[in-house]
């Protein structure tokens, strides 16, 4: 039996949805750029954010992503390796699951 109510968990998902604010990406291990948030929504038990990463007309590799909260604090980051051609843009999907697990 779950400890937390569905309403409580749904309210926490709404809070998380409101608190994630700025999404950045790193190109070729260099400077960080800010992506454009296309949408933020709750899908089932996940908070999902779609971020547009434009292309600057040349092949590159997205080597890192990071997320900031509404207060400007770094919420999380990760190294990745997403290679693109000069014709590709990227739409990054960030998914934050918020569920109760039973142990």
Explain this structure to me?
This protein has 103 residues and is mainly beta. Helices cover 14% and strands 54% of the residues. It has one helix and seven strands. It has a four-stranded antiparallel beta sheet with strand order 2-1-5-6. The protein has a three-stranded antiparallel beta sheet with strand order 3-4-7. A hairpin with a 4-residue loop joins strand 5 (60-69) and strand 6. The mean pLDDT is 92.
SSE blueprint and pairings:
Elements: H1 6-19, E1 20-27, E2 32-34, E3 36-43, E4 46-53, E5 60-69, E6 74-84, E7 90-97
Antiparallel strand pairs: 1-2, 1-5, 3-4, 4-7, 5-6
In whole angstroms, the N-to-C terminal distance is: 11 Å
Widest beta sheet: strand line-up: 2-1-5-6
> Would you list the SSEs in sequence order as H and E?
HEEEEEEE
Helical fraction: 10-25%
Rg calc: 16 Å
Number of strand elements? 7
Q: DSSP strand (E) fraction? A: over 45%
Which class best fits the helix and strand makeup? Answer: mainly beta
Biggest β-sheet strands, sense, barrel: 4 strands, antiparallel
Q: How many helices?
A: 1
Q: Could you name the ranges where pLDDT drops below 50 across 5 or more consecutive residues?
A: none
Mean pLDDT: 92
Overall body shape: elongated
């Amino acid at each position: 039996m779950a400890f937390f109510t569905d309403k409580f968990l749904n309210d926490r998902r709404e809070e998380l949805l409101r608190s994630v604010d700025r999404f950045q990406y790193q190109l070729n291990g260099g400077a960080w750029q800010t992506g454009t948030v296309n949408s933020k929504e709750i899908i089932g038990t996940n908070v999902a954010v779609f971020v547009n990463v434009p292309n600057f007309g040349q092949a590159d590799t997205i080597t890192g992503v990071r997320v900031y909260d509404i207060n400007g604090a770094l919420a999380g980051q990760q190294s990745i390796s997403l290679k693109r051609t000069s014709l590709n843009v990227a739409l990054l999907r960030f998914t934050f699951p918020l569920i109760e697990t039973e142990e």
